[in-house]
Design the sequence.
């Protein structure tokens, strides 16, 4: 049975007004990502990767075009509706971890469940921390954890509410090579075990190669590196 | 370093746009202005007193007695010095319109004043103004306030005792007036012979005979000679230096309390200073990181920001000190009519400089730990603009803070004239900090437990707000320290003011007599009883004997030989004594017991509790009083308390019946009248008994209300200043937390939290803080107010406690609601920064 797509972008454009000129960042971009697929997006600095992620996660809106996540169109959605969508369907892993400094590791992990008003959040957070190997550090604050440990907490936080889509923005960018490898292994393993879709933005071509597909963002368009320069379906 | 000095100044460009730096300046300015104002005014007043000491005292030495000195003594005094006799007594003065008023009558001789000069509206000398005219009318010089109050004019006749006296001049300056103020009534100056003719100098009248002496020798040496010459005389002798010391000490005490209020404001403001600098440094994290990455040494970077803080602190402190000194200057100008102040810029210099130094030290002491923690963070973290909560203050900064704190403490000791009060203040601050710390820990513990309560499951915004009470970097501690203490002060002031006004408005008018009278002579009693009953509106009256006596020994130990200073001082005080039978109203025995009504055994005595406590007396002690030169020994049977505003006669000791009988020469009394008849009754009694001083209770109550209104206003002003400093601190706390809250809100929004929920959590957090602060202020403020009312003012707090609660809830709600609304309105969430970092 063919798998349905979780991410659908059609003719997506994003431009910013800058003084008297208009700067186009994304130009009529198309993208379709299937459920449980692992897709890497690479591209030089300033190519629009961050803008694409912001639009994908509903943190920014497109100038034109269509976007849907899990079949839900983001077009015309209010800020609150987009927040609900993130809460239910998306998990984000940031390059700079972005844990809340005043919450412990367990409280940080439990945050998405708390936001959703789900019960048993603390126990589920402990189970998640166990999966990332940090159950013994559950009471530590982010500043008491190493960079690798903070990213493991961030991954646990991104996965705890069992989202359909994980968006990871340079998850190893702030880590040394060895720690980065371990983190990516963990992310891939958890992605596989939970059956989620992974959209990975990275500079690391080796890391990108471990995904099912690699796309390059250039001149505001996505180009597949697996089958010449053709854009994805 | 020179290159960085230039950078330091360039980096400050645009600092005016940083709101937190304005809070920094305002916090310092407010505290320093208060301190500079109090310090400068104290300096000016002290200088003034020092320069005019002899004028104010009226001589080098004052010899006081209740009667004239003997011929032999007077002749010795005149042979050995210049002498001037000033007689003083309180009496009634009537006008041609039939209005009567209590005045302080002073008689002067040819030598008055020994120092300084009396300035009259007519320009002539005091002796000229008060002399008998050719038609036999004596003259008098009047206090301007009295002239205005009774609408008198120069040339008008008034009635004093048996005399018709002409108002000849208004007193514009009286050199020895300032030390006496108007505590005893507005002065009227007459000739000594006029006083003799007035019929007021009865054998038992309460007249002060003050012999002012001007000597060429050292006053102390001269006094010793006098003691040697007349070893058995019972006079009280005081030298100008001794008087100066007493005045100086009282001034110091008042100034110390005022200065310490200023220091409290500065300390509370210090929290605002620290938070403001923390907020400012948050805007400088990347600059610091850049400096570090460009190879600047830690000391160089520290130099830049210590330099900036020093410069800003100096400017804010200077502005505050100049503002305070200006206020002191203006106050000195207006007070110079009543107090011996000669405003001089030189006098303002030292306190102004000290205030600037203190402000700079305070700013440094509060900001160095913040600066140390920021500069000690890894450059990588700084580059991201992140502040870690767990960073400890580096040892060098802790040491520097301790050193500057020590300098601040030394400056405090130099500033506040009473070291004991300063020490008490420091102990109180330490205890308060410990108490607050304990309360903060307790609240944190409670909040941490509360968060796990099942009831909060699913209440995300509320759980987040509860977590806000105990998480690292929570604003609970600074809020409790600043707003909590200010609100406590406000609650205390509100309860005390409400209780005092309630007592005045409700209790007193129901029970207080219309007229209270003093100095009714024993032979006048029968005539008075008849006359008073015929007055219009008369309802009832009571008379009680009043005997004046001194306590001379306790358990056979003479008070003058005592090691206790309070006992020695007490030996010179005259006490108001009476006997018990039907004379004591509104009293309650606090220790021991009253004797039975038919008691006829050896003399027993009861003492008023404040006197007894001051002397350290216990029930069962044997007390020896000297009354009219004779010793009376009585056993202390009871210690009683009198209700402050409900007592007609303030009696310090009460004897068993018959003990005082031989010494009774005068009576005090009260008259109950129908409403609105008191003025006519006072006038009628004044004409019939010119020597009897009558006081209208309504007027006293009016004066009391006016004094209390002023005291209430002063307390409210102090609380308002303190609250302003606290609101600034709150603004700084909100500012320092704002960046963090925006960051956290952005993460939560990225995780899927709706904006409305983010806002709700902020409102809940401030709501919880309001509840905690209100409860804290109500409990501590009510406890302090209760203690003040019970032990000091002796008033029932009654239903006034709710006023405190209302004030606490109202003020904290208003302050925190404003803070929360400002935060919510400026909370611009920007999740894009998360991905761009």
Sequence:
């Amino acid at each position: 049975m063919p798998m349905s797509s979780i991410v659908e972008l059609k003719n997506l454009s994003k431009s910013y007004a800058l003084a008297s000129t208009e700067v186009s960042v994304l130009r009529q971009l198309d993208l379709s990502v299937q459920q449980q697929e692992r897709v890497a997006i690479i591209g030089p600095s300033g190519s629009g990767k961050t803008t694409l992620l912001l639009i994908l996660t509903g943190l920014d809106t497109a100038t034109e075009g269509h976007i849907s996540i899990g079949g839900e169109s983001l077009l015309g959605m209010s800020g609150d509706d987009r927040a609900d969508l993130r809460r239910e369907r998306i998990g984000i892993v940031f390059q700079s971890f972005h844990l809340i400094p005043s919450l412990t590791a367990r409280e940080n992990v439990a945050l998405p469940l708390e936001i959703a008003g789900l019960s048993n959040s603390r126990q589920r957070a402990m189970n998640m921390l166990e999966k990332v190997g940090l159950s013994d550090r559950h009471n530590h604050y982010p500043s008491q954890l190493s960079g690798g440990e903070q990213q493991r907490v961030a991954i646990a936080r991104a996965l705890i509410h069992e989202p359909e889509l994980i968006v990871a923005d340079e998850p190893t960018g702030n880590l040394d090579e060895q720690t980065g490898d371990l983190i990516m292994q963990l992310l891939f393993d958890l992605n596989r075990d939970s059956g989620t879709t992974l959209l990975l933005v990275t500079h690391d071509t080796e890391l990108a190669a471990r995904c099912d597909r690699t796309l390059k963002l250039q001149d505001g368009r996505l180009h597949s590196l697996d089958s010449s320069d053709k854009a994805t379906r | 370093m020179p290159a960085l000095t230039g950078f330091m100044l360039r980096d400050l460009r645009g600092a005016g746009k940083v709101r937190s730096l304005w809070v920094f300046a305002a916090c310092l300015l407010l505290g320093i202005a208060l301190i500079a104002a109090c310090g400068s005014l104290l300096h000016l007043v002290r200088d003034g007193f020092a320069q005019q000491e002899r004028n104010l005292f009226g001589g080098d030495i004052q010899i006081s007695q209740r009667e004239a000195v003997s011929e032999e003594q007077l002749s010795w005094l005149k042979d050995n010095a210049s002498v001037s006799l000033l007689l003083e007594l309180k009496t009634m003065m009537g006008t041609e319109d039939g209005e009567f008023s209590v005045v302080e009558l002073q008689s002067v001789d040819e030598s008055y004043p020994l120092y300084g000069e009396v300035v009259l509206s007519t320009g002539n000398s005091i002796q000229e103004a008060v002399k008998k005219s050719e038609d036999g009318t004596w003259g008098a010089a009047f206090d301007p306030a009295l002239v205005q109050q009774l609408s008198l004019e120069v040339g008008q006749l008034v009635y004093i005792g048996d005399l018709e006296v002409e108002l000849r001049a208004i007193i514009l300056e009286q050199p020895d007036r300032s030390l006496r103020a108007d505590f005893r009534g507005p002065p009227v100056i007459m000739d000594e012979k006029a006083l003799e003719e007035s019929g007021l100098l009865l054998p038992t009248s309460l007249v002060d005979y003050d012999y002012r002496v001007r000597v060429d020798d050292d006053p102390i040496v001269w006094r010793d000679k006098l003691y040697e010459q007349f070893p058995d005389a019972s006079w009280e002798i005081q030298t100008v230096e001794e008087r100066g010391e007493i005045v100086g000490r009282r001034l110091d005490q008042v100034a110390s309390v005022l200065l310490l209020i200023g220091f409290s404001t500065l300390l509370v403001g210090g929290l605002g200073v620290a938070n403001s600098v923390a907020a400012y440094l948050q805007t400088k994290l990347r600059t610091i990181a850049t400096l570090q990455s460009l190879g600047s040494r830690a000391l160089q970077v520290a130099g830049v920001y210590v330099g900036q803080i020093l410069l800003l602190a100096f400017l804010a402190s200077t502005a505050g000190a100049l503002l305070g000194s200006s206020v002191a200057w203006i106050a000195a100008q207006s007070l110079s009519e009543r107090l011996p102040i000669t405003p001089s810029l030189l006098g303002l210099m030292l306190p102004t400089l000290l205030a600037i130094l203190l402000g700079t030290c305070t700013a440094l002491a509060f900001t160095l730990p913040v600066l140390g923690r920021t500069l000690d963070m890894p450059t990588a973290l700084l580059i991201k603009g992140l502040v870690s909560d767990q960073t400890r203050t580096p040892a060098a900064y802790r040491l520097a803070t301790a050193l500057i704190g020590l300098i601040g403490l030394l400056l405090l000791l130099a500033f506040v004239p009473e070291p004991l009060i300063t020490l008490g203040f420091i102990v109180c601050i330490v205890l308060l900090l410990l108490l607050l710390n304990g309360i903060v820990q307790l609240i944190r513990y409670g909040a941490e437990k509360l968060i796990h309560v099942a009831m909060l499951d699913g209440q995300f915004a509320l759980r987040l707000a509860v977590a806000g009470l105990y998480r690292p970097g929570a604003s609970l501690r600074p809020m409790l320290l600043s707003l909590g203490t200010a609100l406590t002060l406000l609650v205390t002031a509100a309860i005390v003011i409400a209780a005092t006004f309630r007592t005045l408005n409700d209790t007193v008018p129901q029970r207080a007599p219309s007229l209270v009278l003093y100095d009714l002579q024993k032979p006048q009693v029968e005539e008075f009883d008849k006359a008073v009953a015929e007055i219009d509106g008369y309802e009832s009256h009571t008379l009680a004997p009043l005997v004046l006596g001194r306590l001379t020994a306790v358990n056979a130990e003479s008070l003058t030989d005592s090691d206790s200073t309070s006992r020695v001082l007490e030996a010179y005080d005259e006490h108001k004594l009476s006997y018990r039978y039907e004379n004591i109203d509104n009293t309650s025995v606090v220790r021991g017991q009253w004797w039975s009504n038919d008691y006829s055994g050896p003399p027993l005595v009861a003492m008023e509790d404040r006197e007894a406590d001051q002397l350290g007396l216990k029930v069962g002690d044997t007390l020896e009083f000297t009354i009219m030169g004779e010793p009376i020994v009585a056993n202390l049977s009871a210690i009683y308390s009198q209700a402050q505003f409900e007592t007609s006669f303030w009696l310090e000791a009460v004897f068993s019946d018959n003990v005082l009988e031989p010494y009774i020469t005068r009576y005090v009394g009260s008259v109950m009248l129908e409403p609105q008849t008191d003025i006519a009754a006072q006038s009628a009694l004044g004409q019939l008994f010119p020597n009897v001083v009558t006081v209208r209770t309504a007027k006293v109550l009016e004066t009391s209300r006016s004094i209390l209104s002023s005291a209430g206003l002063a307390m409210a002003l102090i609380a308002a200043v303190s609250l302003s400093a606290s609101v600034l601190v709150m603004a700084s706390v909100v500012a320092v937390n704002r960046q963090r809250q925006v960051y956290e809100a952005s993460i939560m929004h990225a995780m899927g939290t709706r904006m409305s929920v983010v806002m709700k959590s902020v409102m809940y957090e401030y709501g919880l803080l309001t509840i905690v602060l209100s409860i804290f202020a109500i409990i501590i403020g009510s406890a302090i107010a209760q203690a003040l009312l019970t032990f000091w003012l002796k008033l029932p707090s009654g239903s006034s406690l709710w006023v405190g609660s209302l004030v606490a809830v109202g003020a904290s709600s208003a302050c925190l609601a404003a803070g929360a609304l400002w935060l919510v309105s400026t909370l611009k969430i920007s999740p894009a920064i998360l991905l761009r970092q």
Observations:
- Residues 177-194 of chain A form the longest helix (18 residues).
- The mean pLDDT of chain A is 84.
